[in-house]
Specification:
The complex is a heterodimer of chains A (239) and B (820). Chain A has 239 residues and is α/β, with parallel strands linked by helices. In chain A, a hairpin with a 2-residue loop joins strand 9 and strand 10. Chain A is globular, with a radius of gyration of 18 Å. Chain A contains eight helices and ten strands. A six-stranded mixed beta sheet of chain A has the order 6-7-8-3-9-10. In chain A, strands 2-1-4-5 form a four-stranded antiparallel beta sheet, with helices on one face. In chain B, the strands form four sheets. In chain B, strands 1, 3, 4, 5, 6, 7, 8, 9, 11 and 12 form a ten-stranded mixed beta sheet that branches. Chain B has 27 helices and 22 strands. Chain B starts with a helix and ends with a helix. With 820 residues, chain B is of the alpha+beta class. Chain B is 58% helix and 17% strand. Chain B folds into four domains: 196 residues, no CATH class; 179 residues, no CATH class; 243 residues, no CATH class; 79 residues, no CATH class. The chains are: A alpha/beta (239), B alpha+beta (820). At the A-B interface, helix 2 and helix 3 of A face helix 16, helix 24, helix 25 and helix 27 of B. Chain B: Its main location: membrane. Chain B: This is ABC lipoprotein transporter, permease component. Chain B: Keywords: Cell membrane, Lipoprotein, Membrane, Transmembrane, Transmembrane helix.
Chain lengths: 239, 820
């Protein structure tokens, strides 16, 4: 589903060049739930942005759903995003002038492909994220947890090949965060949804199938839920 | 150490585009203001200059209520030791002898013979030749039309010929037509040596008037001569420079002030929008500053300095630019007059005024934001929580007050205009919301989903967007009203002139009309009636403030021609009959400054006299700068005994043939023939030229308002950086983002145009129905202006939106998302 080869990203500020990602290779299969962790500045968020086509790499290839993002033009990447990717952000990033329903439908509107069938799907999504009855409520009038649920529904509305989540529980308390993670986990299990999640929260990472640990722009460690180390690692971290 | 000026400079230049557009709006506002102030002062100077040129250095003049009088009557003055200079003048009507085929009326010329062409009591700016007291002096316009120059000979029918010794600039004394069409109704005026004219006319001892200059104020001489000449044919008057009788340009000054006020109001409003938004955006920054020990005053001071920096910059650039624009404007303005006028740009006082206003207005408009910045609460969260209910209450209050103010359309009072305009501004959020809903299908068709998003976005900052559209609307509505007034003014003037001219044709003679002359005129097939018009002129009088002014006093009677319009006409005639009193035309009444029932002081042929002002009336004669008196009192008490004018009622088709016949039959003493149509044409000729200026002003005002639109859209974009980043992340293309901003700009422009045209129509309608205007402005829409307003309003708003959309589409997605 996702194949990253020799991925390098440099930022230039004045005379200074900073290499944030240093030749990363990564392979994520379809239907996997991957959590990326690492200290600030380790490159995890940059990787997510590159996977989402929000930025272009300095070097290397990014292949998502058999499309080379690094070879696409800006407009092609935009269209790819609205058709093949779903985004969840830490601060929800809902459009305040739109209602719940309109926010969720936004990627379909942008694509000009809102049909009756899709409308039905939107209502199903609203129900599945537990927001029945709030369809016509302005997004900015909802609580943080509710807003993130809307964001999840919006991310799923176009049946994305990959759902990219950047600190999806970063602004929520533990109870609300758990609800969101359970929701993501449910979609992952039921719909075989591929999810790549960047998080600082080891509790959130516990919901993923694989944990990728970043350090200084390179992948330090990849731990799978199936491995014994995974439970040990989490337990140690929690302790 | 922190330098507050440097910090302020950094703050205002932080957002380059916003800084640029705000500064541009302020510069344009200041420059339009400056240009109008310069135009106002320069125009006043121009008219003063020509008036002073007419008056020259003379202090008094001795005239006659006959056409001429014997020179010996003024010998006492000539001999008086206090008299430093005298100028003797004799006027004589004649005809040019031309090689080309021209009618008598086209060839009519008034020759003024003077005893000294170089007299200090004459101001004749020579273009070519010299004032040698030997030849004819021609004004430039006449010289061009006749194709003559210095050294050429001019011939006068049945009189003689002389060489041209000088060609001079335009002066009132020698005002001449510049084309043959105007020569039909206006005589040429030339100057000749007095002796030459006396020789040609045989009037060897006669003069029309004598001007003289005295040492000191000459009051004793004036009084003694005034007393000595009571009951004689001559009378003495002080020489007064008063251009109000020959020019009614008060409307022009109103135009200047209106444009200046509008420009500075629009730029002030833009400043308010920008600075208020800036303050709201920086609340967090102010809260931090206050938590670190900044007082309310120091936060306010920071914003004030930012404002002062902007004001200083805009004034430094705007004022010189405005002086240059004022020069351009004056060239355009003076070109609409019939004669070539020269002007010297008066920019010093306007510059000082513009600097003061340019520095003050932005500060005044930003007082509320400055106060608001200082009042920032550190506990921002609490503040934000309270804001929702407060703003909805404010929204309701704004709408309610707006509706109440709009109800002033039913009140016929000058204040209503201001109330309506404020009402429109307050109701604009409602109009913008309503119009947005109405045009949503069109926007969806044009811009797809981006159009729908634009409608939703506009509602986010509805007040700011509505204010921006309201600025455009107010500009458009006022210019439309001005346009309507200019367009319907000719009709209004025509109505007024026809109603008060007193006939169809006015014929003026050098000598009093005899009963034989009247009988001959009545024998013309196309002349239905002949009435005498007595005009005592020039008559000097004092305003309530003691200023000397000059006008004509016309005789009226109940059975005579109707020279003024008033619903109480009969009562007024009765009042005039009861005692020696006058009716003042409205402009003369305003200038006089007294009240009906009080007395006005005049210098009459019978000496200085007080007359009760019995009323104020509207009249076309001298645009209302005139007085009316009962004919018997004018003859007996006032002392004016002769009439040189007749008012003819004629078959309207026969104007030209009668004119020709008049010149042919009475050419030896006829001096002027003017039809009511000539009067209408001469009154309205300058107004039609104003239409082009109105169109230019409309375009400039819309441009200025569009800068406001660009600025507002930039602010909207800046506030929605995070949202736009989200949209882009979720698959909105750059083009879709641009389309969305374009649609927002289009909506603002459209609502500004729709609101402006609607308000303009309301203003024109209430003006046409206003009792105060007495039907002067008819309800007719200036279609040219409306079409220009619509095209320019929407297209310039789209341009403004396009500039803003470039910023929006270039936004970096990642950094935009971080803003959230």
């Amino acid at each position: 589903m996702i194949k990253v080869t020799n991925l390098t990203k440099e930022f230039v500020q004045g005379q200074e060049r900073t290499q944030v990602l240093k030749g990363i290779d990564l392979h994520i299969e379809e239907g996997e739930f991957v959590a990326i962790m690492g200290p600030s500045g380790s490159g995890k968020s940059t990787l997510l942005q590159l996977l989402g086509g929000l930025d272009v790499p300095t070097k290397g290839d990014i292949q998502v759903d058999q499309h080379f993002l690094n070879k696409m033009k800006e407009r092609e990447r935009t269209i790819f995003r609205r058709q093949k990717l779903g985004f969840i952000f830490q601060n929800y990033q809902l459009l305040p002038t739109l209602t719940v329903e309109e926010n969720i439908a936004f990627p379909l509107h942008a694509d000009g492909k809102l049909t009756n069938e899709k409308n039905k799907w939107i209502h199903e999504l609203i129900a599945s994220v537990g927001l029945e009855g709030l369809n016509r409520k302005r997004a900015n009038l909802l609580s943080g947890g509710q807003q993130q649920r809307v964001a999840i529904a919006r991310a799923l509305v176009n049946h994305p090949a990959v759902l990219l989540a950047d600190e999806p529980t970063g602004n929520l308390d533990r109870a609300k965060a758990e609800e969101i993670l359970v929701l993501l986990s449910t979609f992952h299990r039921r719909k075989k949804q591929t999810i790549v999640m960047v998080t600082h929260d080891i509790f959130a990472a516990g919901f993923a199938d694989h944990l990728i640990l970043f350090k200084d722009g390179v992948i330090d460690q990849v731990i799978s839920r199936k491995e014994e180390d995974y439970a040990k690692y989490l337990a140690n971290f929690m302790a | 150490m922190l330098n507050i000026w440097r910090i302020s400079w950094r703050n205002i230049t932080q957002n380059k585009k916003r800084f640029f557009f705000t500064l541009l709006a302020m510069i344009l506002g200041t420059s339009f203001l400056t240009s109008m102030l310069v135009a106002d002062k320069t125009t006043k100077d121009v008219f003063d200059y020509y008036e002073q040129m007419y008056v020259a250095n003379a202090d008094y003049w001795v005239l006659s209520d006959e056409h001429t009088y014997p020179e010996k009557l003024i010998s006492s003055i000539q001999k008086d030791s206090a008299v430093t200079h005298t100028l003797l003048a004799l006027d004589k009507q004649a005809f040019f002898e031309l090689d080309d085929d021209h009618s008598l009326n086209e060839r009519s010329v008034r020759i003024t013979g003077v005893n000294d062409q170089n007299s200090p009591l004459l101001k004749l700016p020579v273009i070519e030749g010299s004032l040698d007291n030997k030849g004819i002096i021609l004004p430039e316009a006449a010289a061009k039309l006749l194709g003559k120059g210095v050294g050429d000979t001019v011939r006068f029918t049945d009189m003689g010929e002389a060489k041209i010794s000088a060609v001079v600039e335009y002066t009132q004394l020698l005002a001449s037509p510049s084309d043959w069409e105007s020569a039909e109704s206006t005589s040429f005026r030339v100057m000749a040596p007095l002796e030459m004219l006396r020789e040609w006319t045989g009037k060897n001892d006669e003069i029309s008037y004598m001007r003289f200059q005295v040492e000191g104020d000459g009051t004793d001489l004036f009084r003694s001569f005034q007393q000595a000449s009571v009951g004689s044919d001559v009378y003495i008057e002080p020489v007064v420079a008063d251009d109000l009788q020959s020019n009614d340009i008060s409307g022009l000054y109103t135009f200047f002030y209106l444009i200046a006020g509008l420009s500075i109001f629009i730029s002030g409003f833009i400043v308010f929008n920008v600075i208020y938004t800036s303050v709201i955006e920086r609340k967090k920054e102010f809260a931090i500053m206050k938590s670190l020990g900044y007082t309310q005053g120091s936060v306010s001071k920071l914003i004030l300095i930012e404002m002062l920096l902007l004001a200083w910059l805009s004034t430094a650039v705007g004022v010189p630019l405005g002086i240059w624009l004022g020069d351009l404007f004056m060239q355009a303005l003076l070109s609409v007059f019939e004669f070539d006028m020269v002007y010297t740009l008066n920019w010093k006082l306007p510059m000082l005024l513009a600097i003061v206003i340019g520095l003050l207005i932005p500060v005044i408009f930003s007082l509320f934001p400055i106060y608001n910045a200082g009042k920032t609460s550190i506990l921002l969260a609490l503040k934000i929580a309270n804001q929702t209910s407060a703003s909805s209450r404010r929204h309701f209050l704004r709408t309610a007050v707006g509706a109440v103010l709009l109800a002033f359309v039913f009140v016929d009072h000058p204040v209503s205009y201001m109330a309506i305009l404020i009402g429109v501004i307050l109701l604009f959020p409602l109009l913008l919301s309503g119009l947005s809903k109405l045009v949503t299908p069109i926007l969806k068709y044009l811009f797809n989903y981006a159009g729908i998003m634009a409608v939703k976005n506009l509602s986010q900052q509805i007040n700011r967007n509505a204010n921006t559209a309201a600025i455009l609307a107010i500009g458009i509505s006022i210019i439309l009203l001005l346009g309507a007034a200019v367009e319907s003014a000719p009709k209004g003037y025509e109505k007024e002139i026809r109603g008060t001219y007193g006939g169809d044709m006015r014929v003026t003679s050098e000598t009093p009309w005899s009963s034989e002359d009247r009988a001959k005129l009545l024998s013309y097939d196309d002349v239905a009636d002949v009435e005498t018009l007595t005009e005592a002129t020039p008559i000097t009088w004092k305003t309530k403030k003691g200023r000397s002014r000059q006008f004509s006093v016309l005789s009226v009677s109940e059975k005579g021609p109707s020279l003024f319009a008033d619903p109480r006409e009969k009562d007024l005639y009765k009042k005039l009959k009861q005692e020696p009193s006058v009716l003042l035309g409205n402009r003369a009444f305003d200038e006089w400054g007294g009240e009906v029932g009080q007395s006005i002081l005049m210098n009459t042929p019978n000496g200085e006299q007080h007359f009760k002002v019995a009323g104020v009336v509207k009249t076309s004669h001298y645009s209302g700068y005139v007085a009316f008196m009962d004919e018997e009192y004018l003859h007996n008490d006032f002392g004016w005994t002769t009439s040189f004018d007749l008012l003819l009622t004629i078959n309207s088709e026969a104007g030209d043939s009668i004119r020709e016949r008049l010149w042919s039959d009475f050419g030896d003493h006829l001096s002027k023939v003017q039809t009511v149509e000539d009067e209408i044409a001469s009154t309205t000729s300058a107004i039609s030229g104003m239409n082009d200026l109105i169109l230019v002003m409309l375009f400039l005002i819309i441009s200025l308002a569009s800068i406001g639109t660009a600025n507002t859209l930039l602010m909207n974009i800046l506030e929605r950086v995070s949202e736009m980043g989200t949209m882009r992340a979720l698959g909105f293309t750059k083009r879709q983002v641009s389309s969305m901003i374009l649609a927002e700009g289009m909506l603002i422009g459209l609502s500004g145009v729709v609101g402006g045209v609607a308000t303009g129509v309301i203003l024109v309608y209430i003006t046409s129905k206003s009792q105060l205007m007495e039907g002067f402005v008819s309800f007719q829409l200036p279609l040219d202006n409306i079409i220009l307003a619509m095209i320019a309003g929407v297209s310039l708003s789209l341009c403004a939106a396009w500039i803003s959309s470039k910023s929006a589409s270039k936004m970096d997605i990642q950094s935009s998302l971080k803003e959230g």
